[in-house]
UniProtKB/TrEMBL annotation:
It holds the Pfam family CsbD. It comes from the Eukaryota. Residues 7-54 form the CsbD-like domain. This is CsbD-like domain-containing protein. Belongs to the UPF0337 (CsbD) family.
Length: 98
């Protein structure tokens, strides 16, 4: 979990508490602030996840290209480095979706 994702979850949780307390006490202002803060937290989480997906896709693509160029040139080091970068992208993708 990235710091952006964690921050989003914390903001959503704080908003949910404010929303609940506002509802329980009849404080409409606190309730509204809680609803807004919770929504902002969820938006932060979603933005962080989208960024992680893009980063993972970039690693997979760049690694695959480097691996294939290394293969075409007969450069084992380039193939290995490309394979490692591609694998890193797959791991990031797996972690982002689970």
């Amino acid at each position: 979990m990235t710091s952006s994702t964690l921050t989003g979850h914390l903001n959503a949780a704080k908003g949910a508490v404010k929303e609940t307390v506002g509802s329980a006490t009849g404080n409409h202002s606190l309730h509204a602030k809680g609803v807004a803060e919770k929504a902002e937290g969820h938006a932060q989480v979603n933005a962080a996840k989208a960024g992680n997906h893009v980063d993972a896709a970039g690693d997979k693509t760049a690694g695959n290209i480097k691996k294939n160029v290394g293969n075409a040139l007969g450069n084992e080091r380039m193939q290995t480095e490309g394979g490692a970068t591609e694998a890193k992208g797959h791991v990031k993708s797996h972690l982002t979706t689970h």
